[in-house]
Structure formats: structure tokens, C-alpha cells
Amino acid sequence: MAQWSMLQQLESRYLEQVDQLYDDTFPMEIRQYLSQWIESHDWESVATSDSLATVRFHDLLAQLDDLYSRFALENNFHLQHNIRKIKRNLQEHFQEFPVHMAMLICNALKEEKKILNMAIKTEENAGSAQNNSMGGKHRELDKKVSKLRKMVQDAEINIKSLEDLQDEHDFKKNTLQSRDQEPNGLKDQEHKREELLIKEMFIRLNMKREQVVHQVAEALKMTDHIQFSLTTEELPEWKRRQQVACIGGPPNTCLDQLQSWFTSVAEAAGAGAEVHIRKRPHRSGGQLIGGTSLLHNSALVLERQPCMPTHQQRPLILKIGVQFTVKLRLLVKLPELNFQLKVKVLFDKCIMGFVSKEREKLLLRDKSPGTFLLRFSESRKDGAITFTWVEHTVSEGPMVHAVEPYTKKELAAISFPDILHHYEVMAASNLPDNPLVFLYPDIPNDNALGRYYSRPPEEERSAKLMDVEGQNSSCRFLPRLLISVIVPLGSSEGSLKALGKAGIREGIGELVG
Fold it and tell me: Does the keyword Isomerase apply (predicted)?
């Protein structure tokens, strides 16, 4: 039987390991569609010969063309699209270095063989003491999680019954009180009998309430116990297996079982904490919230570490100029967390990212005066953001000015868009002027950043006009505004520094009206 066919018959935990061998660089679809062709060649020999690797690379592209033609005859547009995309990616990654593709296939086949042998060996040694111990430990944890689910379900049923009983008690009590106020009310014997029934119902209600609270407390106690096992034993054990896999060990890093446990415990903790706090809000609310936050903080794991493109199971040495991918996974899989996160990043891409000083001079040199760009600082270890603009002089030509970067502490006082909006340079004549006119390449400042101002430009102009009118009538104070004022320290490029520690001060008097 072919190796690929044997792999597909393995358990899900082994298939998870096989899945980690393939990514977008060399997708599993190729392994599936061309399994016989791939296994019919000696890729270890191909990886040692450039000429042979080139031949096999073009053979692979030809195989993909045949697949594309077959899917075209079947009118399968989706698979046609996938094959076309796969071929384009292969040409992009391996056209110039086909040996890398041969090495990747060779290593993948070897790892598949290891997984297959490990699965066979595991089945043969199923009765060993170590496997029995690990399997028994996981089975015991499975039983505890199942028991926890049952306890939570029973508690929810009892809570619903308790709420129905409470409604019935309140209805009968209110009905009795309304009848007492009628002229022809109940007789004494009937009234006493109704009161006795309501009291008995009240006693049963209290007993039921205490029973529910005790049941929820027991469920939370078991939740804490299972959570402790998951965060201090199971999760560190998985991370240790991942570390071993990164240095050539077996890639036994399946997360499906851990995710099932984490999700069950999170659901139980959330339901139990909600009931417990609602019924007894003065007891241990902070402890419950702290316990669930510990579980959620531990639930975000790095499923796939950065790896070398040609050796999927070897760790990647991170360095500048090397692209890599990682895969994150949230082990708490709840419906309310299953949505696509959409945020506006970096002012709708107004920030150019990391740009060297030489490149920003090249970008701004031929632009209109007042053109500026936003970039991250490369010199601040804790991170900072700055901007650079260009001005043209008759004697020296274009001059580029860079501002001392703004840090998180400084941006806490005033937002970065407001800094850009109210930014002013104190010229030699002591008249402040905003040099920022166009956001690179040629977008007017207010058009690009106006939506992020704390006050829209139109509203701000109206407010200034009202302040002037109020000042002329009855106001005794001059209006003031937090601005960033810059003074030149010299005549060379980039010699600008903001006044004040944060580059922000109150401009009073200069900004009247």
C-alpha cells in the first residue's frame, strides 16, 4: 500500500502531525493529487543535483497542467482556481531554486515515514506501562470534564426550576394580598390555609435555592481543580513536546484534545460564575473572575513556531530580512469569540511603517513644500512614532526636517492626529506656522487625518469664532490650546526639537481668536 494511503488511515492525532508538514509553500493538495508520482521518485538523489531538480520541477508543473485540464473537462472551476494558484506559488518560490523544492519534498516524505512508524510502534506497545499511565491520566481527565459538563447541565435545569418556583410563589403571594383588600375578602380559615401554603412554598424555595448554590459551588470547585491541571500540567507538557519537535523530535503536538478540555472548562466556569455572583454577589466574585482570566490568558498558544522554508520541522533562526509565518490558536473555542476581527490599522495605512532616513529623503526630495510622511522610529527600543517634512529654499534647495519621536508617555497627553493638526514651528520672526500641508504623496492634511481629530476642523473653527465673540462680550480669559511648538536649533537638516519634555505646551496669547 502507498505511504499516503496508509497515512490517511491513521488516527486524527497523527493526521494533525501530517498537516503540520505542509503549508502554502508546498500545499497538501499537491501531495494528495500527485501522491503516486511523488512517491515514484528518489527525492534524496534529486536534492543533490541541480539539473535533476530542475527536470523534476518542470515535470511537477506539467503534472499540474494535466490536473488543470482534467478539472476543466469536469467543469470544476473551484479546483481549477486552486491548481492555478498552486502552480503560481510554486513558480514564485522554486523557479530559481528547484533544489529547495526537492529538499522540502524529501524531508516531508521522511517525516511522514517517521509518523507512520511511530503510529505502528504505538499500536504495538499499547500495553506498555508508560502509555497506560499517560492514557489513564487522559482518560481520568476526560471523566472529570464529562462529570463537570453533567454538573453544569444539572445546575442549569435546577436554576430554571427554581425560577419557575419563585414566579409561582410571587404570584400566589400577590394574589392573596390583593384579595385581602377586597370588601368580600377570604374567610379567616381560607386565608390561614393560603398563608400556610405560601409559607411552605417559601421554605421549599429557600431549600431549593441553597441546593442550587451548593451545586454551583461544587461545579466551580471542580472547575478550579481541572483548570489547575490544564494550566500547570497538560499545557506545559504540550509546550515541551513542541520544543522537542522543533529540534528534530516527533511532531506530536496535536491540540484538539487540549482545546476540547479548555473549552469545556471555560463554558463551565462562565456559567457557574454568572450564577454564583448573581445569587451571592458578596462572596468571592473577584476570585471567580481571576480564575477564568487565568484560563483565558493561558489559552492563546503558538501552534506553529517559525520554521525554515525547506525544513519544516527545523526551527528558524530569526534575522533581519527573513520572512516567516507563525500560527496562533485560541484553545477556548466559544461561539461568542468566533468572529472576524476588523480594525482600522495605522490610520488607514497613513503610517508608512519603518523607513530609513536615506529613503525618506529620497521620497520627499521632489515633493511639494510641506509634504510630510509618518513613520515608526528605528532608534527607540520601546517604540515611538515621528514625522518628516520637506521645505524648499532658494539657496540650499529641498531640506528635510525630522522631529524627535513621540513615545507612548507623550501620546497619552494628546493624540497623534491632534499633534499633527496643531503642529507649529516657531520661525525666526517668532510667528508660529504649521509646515504640514500634504500627507505623502499629495493628500491634503485635513482630508487624510481629519476623521481622527478629537474635534472636526469645521467644529473647531466654529468654536474659535464663538470664543472670540464671547471674549468680546463678557469672557475675561483668553482661549488656550495644547500645541506642539518647534524651534530650530541650527541651520542643518533635521535640527528641530520640541519645546517641553513631551514636545507639548500651552500656547496662550499667541493663539487668541
Answer: no
Distance CA 146, CA 62 (A): 52
CB 220 within 8 A of CB 288: yes
Q: Are residues 311 and 170 in the same domain?
A: yes
Q: For residue 433, what are the β-bridge partners?
A: 425
- Residues 72 and 113: beta-carbon distance below 8 Å: no
Cα(57)–Cα(35) distance, rounded to whole angstroms? 15
* pLDDT tens digits, one per residue of 443-476: 887 887 777 777 766 665 555 555 555 555 545 5
Q: Coil, helix or strand for 319? A: coil
Name the domain count of the chain: 3
Query: CB 477: neighbour CB atoms within 10 A?
Result: 9
Any idea what the CATH number is for the domain that residue 402 is in?
3.30.505.10
Q: 3-class SS at 284?
A: coil
Q: What is the pTM of this model?
A: 0.42
Q: Are residues 445 and 395 in the same domain?
A: yes
Answer whether residue 468 is part of any domain.
no
For the chain, first and last CA: distance in Å?
A: 87
Same domain, 329 and 245: yes
Question: Which of 96, 126, 160 marks a domain boundary?
Answer: 96
3-class DSSP state for residue 488?
Answer: strand
Q: Which long-range contacts (CB under 8 A, 24 or more apart) does 224-232 make?
A: 224/291, 225/144, 226/141, 226/144, 226/145, 226/148, 226/261, 226/265, 227/265, 227/269, 227/291, 227/294, 227/295, 229/141, 230/258, 230/261, 230/262, 230/265, 230/295, 230/298, 231/294, 231/295, 231/298
> pLDDT digit string (tens) for 489-505?
444 444 454 443 333 33
Q: Do 403 and 437 fall within a single domain? A: yes
Of 174, 241, 246, 161, the residue nearest 207 (C-alpha): 161
CATH number at residue 73: 1.10.532.10
What is the predicted pLDDT for the residue at 499?
44
Distance CA 290, CA 55 (A): 60
Is residue 497 one of the residues assigned to a domain?
Answer: no
Same domain, 417 and 327: no
Q: Judge whether 495 and 489 are in contact, CB under 8 Å.
A: yes
Integer Cα distance of 23 and 29 in angstroms = 10
155-169: per-residue pLDDT in tens?
888 888 888 888 888
Per the structure, the complete domain to which residue 446 belongs is given by: 357-455
Burial (Cβ within 10 Å: 0-12, 13-18, ≥19) of residue 251: buried
The pair phi, psi for residue 62, each rounded to 5°, is -65, -40
Total Cβ atoms within 10 A of residue 473: 7
Residue 393 lies in a domain: yes
What's the pLDDT tens digit per position in 410-425? 878 788 888 887 777 7
CATH label of the domain that carries residue 325: 1.20.1050.20
